[in-house]
Amino acid sequence: MSGGARQAALSALRLGGIAVLAVALLAGVHHLARGPIAEAERQAALQALALVMPADRYDNDLLADRVQVRAPAWLGLDAASVHRARLAGRANGLVLEANAPDGYAGDIRLLVGVDAEGRVLGVRVTEHRETPGLGDGVEPRRSNWIARFAGRSLGDPPADRWAVRRDGGDFDQFAGATVTPRAVVNAVRRTLQFVRRHGPALMAAESGATLRFDDAPEPGTGTERDTR
Question: Are 214 and 74 contacting, i.e. CB atoms less than 8 angstroms apart?
Answer without folding.
Answer: no
